Amino acid sequence: MTHNSRELLKLDGLSVEYRIRGGYLSAVKNVSMDIGRGEIFAIVGESGCGKSTIAHSIMRLLPDKNERISGGIYFEGENLGAYSDNQMTAVRGKRIGMIFQNPLDSLNPVYRSGTQVAEAIFLDKKDRAIVWKEVIDLYREMKMPDPDQRVRSFPHELSGGMRQRVMIAMMLARNPKLLIADEPTTALDVTVEAQILEIMSRLRADFNTSILLITHNFGIVAEIADRVAVMYAGELAEQGSVFDIFQSPSHPYTELLMKALPHQSKRAGRLQTIEGSVPRITSTSPGCRFYNRCPIASGHCENHDPPVRRLGDSHSYACHNR
Ligand SMILES: Nc1ncnc2c1ncn2[C@@H]1O[C@H](COP(=O)(O)OP(=O)(O)O)[C@@H](O)[C@H]1O
Ligand SMILES: [Mg+2]
């Protein structure tokens, strides 16, 4: 496979199926995308569209060994599929960092937050006083209020926003090339959300860190991302630059998601839900997965895979009727 040095991560026809009772669930189907160095790339879609499955596949954090995975995952030109489990352990954290919606899952409740940061990142340094000072500096960089107090706090004594700052501090200190952030602000209020997004933008600006940002909120995409992939029921509906997508959304699902954008803030209401819900696909027969919710579907859509149409260098969408 040819490797372009601008490109950091490449998914080449990634498909993931989970074994479920009586068969397999197609959580991700034939997804191709690439993320450039220093780029903020968003994956957007409702719950159940396969966003987290993509993140976990990249990190090799899928729940067990019963999934069927096909297609390639290339990082810095190397095929991660060929890496041993030990090699992947080295990739996680050092070269690719990940933060989750609920940081409590990643923090140990019985240790002070600062101790966990210190242990995660300053293993090689002996002098406790110096290490502690560096952790406080990191907290300060994360705009943590009262950093010299907060390093001594246990995770349950911190707010959701503060915990997410602790997680980002750890990631930042390890200086990964790619940060995968899976719904990092979904549990936070709007003010804190804005601060976390700002920290991520600064990460990119200061260290050229690429960010794969997973969200169901198009408002966040508009605010921070360079490019975006819209997913529906495991398939790519559309992808392109944020400018392209907002200027000329071409897939009917993209249009619906954008219409559902809350105009004011989270307080004004969650995403206005679109009629219907994301189906769980277990059949292998062809057809557009958006068919039964689509305002412009025709009979043809039910049984034929939609063609991928290109509108420019990086803008493409999959639809029969557009
Ligand atoms: N471990 C699993 N076993 C079976 N099905 C799963 C598992 N994890 C996720 N799924 C299913 O795969 C689909 C995609 O899930 P997910 O990747 O979590 O979507 P998202 O992150 O976009 O909400 C959903 O239908 C979900 O129920
Ligand atoms: Mg998810």
Task: List key phrases describing it.
eight-stranded mixed sheet; binds adenosine-5'-diphosphate; 2 domains; 11 helices; Rossmann fold; 24% strand; 322 residues; alpha/beta; binds magnesium ion
Bound molecules: adenosine-5'-diphosphate, magnesium ion
Helix share, percent: 25-40%
Number of helices: 11
As a whole number of angstroms, the C-alpha radius of gyration is 20 Å
The helix/strand order is EEEHEEHEHHHHEHEHEEHHHEE
Low-confidence spans: 264-271
CATH class of the largest domain: Alpha Beta
Mind explaining what this structure looks like?
The protein is α/β, with parallel strands linked by helices. It folds into two domains: 232 residues, 3-Layer(aba) Sandwich (Rossmann fold), CATH 3.40.50.300; 72 residues, no CATH class. The chain has eleven helices and twelve strands. The strands form two sheets. The chain has an eight-stranded mixed β-sheet, sandwiched between helices. A four-stranded antiparallel β-sheet has the order 2-1-4-5. A hairpin with a 2-residue loop joins β9 and β10. α4 packs across α6 and α6 packs parallel to α7. The longest helix has 18 residues. Adenosine-5'-diphosphate binds next to β1, β2 and α1.
